[in-house]
Amino acid sequence: MSANQHALLIDRGNLRRRNAVNRAASWASTIAALLAVAVLILVVGSVLLKGIGALSWHFLTTPTALFNESGGGISNAIVGSAIIVGVAAAIAIPVGILVALYTTEFAPARIAGPVRFVLDVLNGVPTIITGIFVYGLLVVPQQGQSGFAGSIALAIVMLPIVARTAQEVLALVPSTLKEASAALGIAHWRTVLRVTIPTAMGGLVTGALLGVARVAGETAPLIFATSIYRQGMLTNPGEALASIPIFIFHQSEAPSPEAHTEAWAAAFVLIAVVLLLNIVARAFYARSQRRMKA
Amino acid sequence: MEAGTLKPNAVLRARRNRTDRIGDPLLRGLSALAALVAVAAIAGIVYEVVHGAWPAIQEYGLKFVTTNDWNPVTKRFGAAPFLYGTVVTSFIALLFATPMALAISVYLTELAPRRIRRPVAILVDLLAAIPTVILGLWGILVLGPFMRDTVEPALKSVLGFLPIFSGDPSAFGYLTAAMILTIMAVPIITSVTREVFETVPGDLKEASYALGATRWEMLRTVVLPYSKPGIVGATILGLCRAIGEAIAVAQVIGGATGINVSLFHTGGTLAAQIASQFEGSPSQLMKSSLIYLGLILLVFAVIVNVIARIIVSRGTLKDVKLDPEDGMTEAQAL
Amino acid sequence: MSKRLLGAFVMALALMVTVAACGGSSGGSSTSSSGGGKEALVGAGSTLVAPLMSKWQPEFESNTEIAVTYGAIGSGGGIDQITSRTVDFGASDAPLSEEQFEEANTQGEVEQIPWALSGTVPAYNVKGAPENLKLSGEVLADIYLGKITSWNDPAIAKLNPGASLPSTKITPVYRSDGSGDTYAFTNYLSTIDPEFSSKVGTSTSVKFPTGVGAEKNDGVSAAISQTDGAIGYVGLAYALENELSMPLVENSAGEFPEPGVKSVEAAANAVSEIGPKNEISLAKLPSSAKGAYPISTYTYVIVPLESGKAGELKEFIEYAIGKGQKFGPELDFAPLPKQVVAADKKALAKIGE
C-alpha cells in the first residue's frame, strides 16, 4: 500500500489522465447500479403484467381453490409461507449469528477455519438435496409431511447465508473497540453483546434479510416436506401447510390459463412482501442507529 | 479475525459478579453448540448423499466422473457433461457478477446521493427475493429470446472465430443460464460487499484523499485491499449460490447431454440435472446416479472453497495468479 | 439481563412451543378425520389427473364425509410418497416399471388401476405453415431423431399436398424432467418406429439425440411459443385450454383425427388388451379403429392392497371410475371404456383390510 501512496505524492503531470480514469470508474459504477435496478424492474414488471389479472383483495383474503379451479386466492399460502419461513428464520438467525460469534470470538484458529469451511460447503448444497435429506429425516419417520419439516429444510438453506455474512461483518469490528471494553474490565460476553454485535448490527440485519429473501421463494425443499395440504386456512406447523412457492408450482402446471395468471400474481405478492420486510427491517435498524447516536 | 485476542485482565476478573462468571461460558457454550449444529447438518447431508449415491458408486465407480453420457433407458450414466456445465456457467456468472457487484457496492457507498442509497440498496437486494421458478420462466420468455436474437448474433459476428461463440444462437443454453445465475449472484455479492465497504475506517480513506488521490485511486489503494477477505467471502457466497442453483437453470439450459464448446449450445449442470430428473426417475439406479451427481457437486464446492482460501491467504493481490478453474475474479475486478 | 439474551430465551421458548405443536398432532395430515369414524384420505402425484381430482374431492366428501387431500406434485413424487407410505394413494401417468413395483411392494403389495383417460399432443409454432398441419408417427419420430430438420422436408410435404411450407429449421422440444407425457410420446414413437425404439426407447425420462429440453408443460409451451419452427409435446388438456396450435397426427386407419375427448375415447374403445398389472398401452391401434387419436394415454392410481384405509380407498376409487367420470369431458378427459371399468372393479375387489 505504501508504495502506491508515494506514487500519489509525486506530481507526474498525469492528473488529467487520472481524473479521466476516475470519471470512467464513476460512470461504470453508476451504470452497473442502474443496470441492476433495470433488470429488477424488468423482471418484476413482467411478473406484475402477467399476474395483474388475478390480483385483487379477494385474491389476498381467500384460501386457495382446488387444483385448476379458479376463484380462489392465496390467503392460506401467505399465512403458511409466513409461518414456515418465520419458524425457519427463528431457528436459522440465532444459530447463524451464534456460529459466526463462535468462529470470530471464541474458537481457536484451527477450529474456526474448518467451521467456516463447513458453512461454505453447506451454502453450495442444492436445495433439492436438502429437501431429500429432510424428507428422509423427518417426513418418512413421521409418516407425513409438516410445515415444521419445511421450516427445518429452509433453516438449513438459510443458515450458511446468515452465518457467513455475520462472520464477515463481525470480523471487521475494529479491535480497538473490543480492547477498550476489555480495558474497562467488562466481561467478554458483555463486550460481545453490548459492543461487538451492535457495531455489526447493520451487517447482521443484511444477512438475515438476505437469508429470508433466499428461502421465501424456495420450492424444492418444500415439495418434499409440505406440498400435500388440506383445504382452508391452516396454521399448525405440525401438519403440511400451504405456501406461496408451492402454489406457484401447482398453478403453473395446471392447464387453465387463469391458473397461470394466479401463479404470476402470487409471485408478485411474494416479492412485494419481501420488499416490505426489507424496508421495515432497515427502517427499524436506522431508527435504532439514530437512537444509539443520540 | 481469529478468536482469542481478548483475555480480560486477571486483576479485573476478581471484581466481576456471578452473572459475568456464568455469562462467558454460557455464551461460549451456546455458540459452540450452534457451530456443532451447523457441522451436524452438513455431516448429516454428506452421510445421506453418500448413502444414496452408494449403489451408483458401486455400479460405476470413479469412471462416472468422466463418462460423457446420460441415458436412462440404457442405464449409462456419467457426470462429465454436467460437471462441465456447472463449471462453465458458474465461471461465466462470476466473471460478470463480481465486477458488477463491486461496481454497485462502490456506487452505493461512495457515489450515490445519500437520499437514494437506502432505496437503491433495497432494490438491488430485492433481486435475491425473486422466486427461482419465476426467474426461470422469465428467462424462457424474455431473456432467452433476447440472447438468441440480439446478444448471441452480435457475439458471433464479432468474435465468431472463437469456438465458444460458434454454432447457432439459441435461447436455451449455457450463456442464457449463466446470465440467470449472474442475476442471482449479484445481489448476494453486492449486499455483503457493501457492508464490508462500510466498515473501512473513514480516516484511512481521508488520508488517501489528503495525499491527493482521486476517488478511484482511493478505492483501489485503500478500500479494496482492506476489504479483500470480505470480498472473497462475498464472492464465495455468490459462487456457491450459482453452483447450487437448480430450478431456474434447468428451465433455460435446454436439458442436453454432452459437452459442447459453444456457449450458445444447450447443456446441463449438476444441480439442474438433479432437480429436473429426480422426481420422474424410472429406476433406482438413476436416482442413485443423480445423488452421485450431488456428491460430485459437494466435492466441487469443497475444492472451490479450498482454492478461495488459498487466494485469501496469499498476501496482496499482486501475488495472486488467476486460476481459471475456480472462477475467482478479484484480480480482474481490481 | 441484556436484551439479546432475553431475545434468545424467547426464541427458544417459541421453538419449544412449535415442537410441542408438532408433536401434538402426530403423523401429519393423514390421521385428520372429518367425521363419523371415517378416515380421511391423502394422495399425491400426477398433475394430469389433478383437475379431475379437484372435481372429485368436494362431491365425494359431501356424499360420504370422507375428506380427500391431494397434492399435485408430479407422478414421480406420487410414486415416491406411496412407496414410503407417507400418503394413502399415489397417482401416476405412466405405469409402474418392474423396479418401481418392487420398491413399492417392500411395505406390502400395491396395485395400479387406470382411472382416467387423456392424451399427449404435439404442439407447434411455425410462421407461414398452415394450421392443422398433417404429420405422421414416422415423421414425428424422424424429427425427434434429427433426421428431418426443416419444415419443408419432402416427407412433410407429402402429407400436406398443396400446402406451402417454410424452410424454417425444426427445433424439437422435449420434456427435460421425467414425465408421463414423455412416456406416452416415446411409447407411441417406439411402437411406430423401430429405429426410434432402439435409438431412444420408452420411458418417463429418455435421452433425446437432438432438440431442446424444457421443464414441465409450461416450460415446453413457453419454449414453443418463443421459437419459430419449434415443435413439442404437452398434455391434451393443457394444449386445448391454452389454445396451442396442434398438428394432426395420422392414425392407424390413415385418418387425421382432431385431438380431443371423442378421438381419445375412440382409441380407448378399440383396445381391449389389459396387461397383467393393469397397464394399458394405446399406442398400437388396429387399422379398423376409426377416428381414434393415436397418442392417447391412461393415468393410474396406485394403492396398497392392505392398509388401514382400505374401505375408504375402495369407496373413493369406485366413485372415481364410476360417477366421477362425468366430470371428465369438460376437463378434456374421455370416459373409461366398459372393459376397463370391469377390470378395474376386479382389481378393486383385491383390496382388503
Describe the structure.
The complex is a heterotrimer of chains A (294), B (334) and C (353). By secondary structure, chain A is mainly alpha-helical. Chain A has helices spanning 2-9, 15-51, 57-61, 75-106, 109-124, 127-142, 147-171, 175-183, 188-216, 220-225, 244-253, 257-293. Chain A is globular, with a radius of gyration of 24 Å. The mean pLDDT of chain A is 87. Chain B has a two-stranded antiparallel sheet with strand order 1-2. Chain B has helices at 10-13, 18-60, 80-111, 114-126, 132-159, 174-198, 202-210, 215-244, 247-253, 270-277, 284-313, 330-333; strands at residues 70-71, 76-77. The longest helix of chain B is centred in the first third of the chain and has 43 residues, at 18-60. Chain B is mostly helical and 334 residues long. In chain C, the strands form 2 sheets. In chain C, strands 2-1-3-10-4-8-6-7 form an 8-stranded mixed sheet. The longest helix of chain C has 22 residues, at 3-24. The termini of chain C are far apart. The chains are: A mainly alpha (294), B mainly alpha (334), C alpha/beta (353). Chains in contact: A-B, A-C, B-C. The interface between A and B is large, with 120 and 122 residues.
Keywords:
heterotrimer; B: about 325 residues; mainly alpha; two-stranded antiparallel sheet; 12 helices; 2 strands; about 70% helix; globular; disordered C terminus; C: about 350 residues; alpha/beta; 8-stranded mixed beta sheet; two-stranded parallel ribbon; 13 helices; about 40% helix; elongated
Quick recap:
The complex is a heterotrimer of chains A (294), B (334) and C (353). Chain A is mainly α.
Rg of chain B (CA only): 23 Å
Overall pLDDT metric of chain B: 85
Sheet with most strands: strand arrangement of chain B: 1-2
How many angstroms separate the termini of chain B? 23 Å
End-to-end CA span of chain A: 36 Å
Low-pLDDT regions of chain B: 315-334
Tell me about the largest β-sheet of chain A. Answer: none
Shape of chain B: globular
Strand content of chain A: under 5%
The total of beta strands of chain A comes to 0
Number of helices of chain B: 12
Q: How would you classify the helix and strand content of chain B by structural class?
A: mainly alpha
Helix share bin of chain B: 55-70%
Main sheet specs of chain B:
2 strands, antiparallel
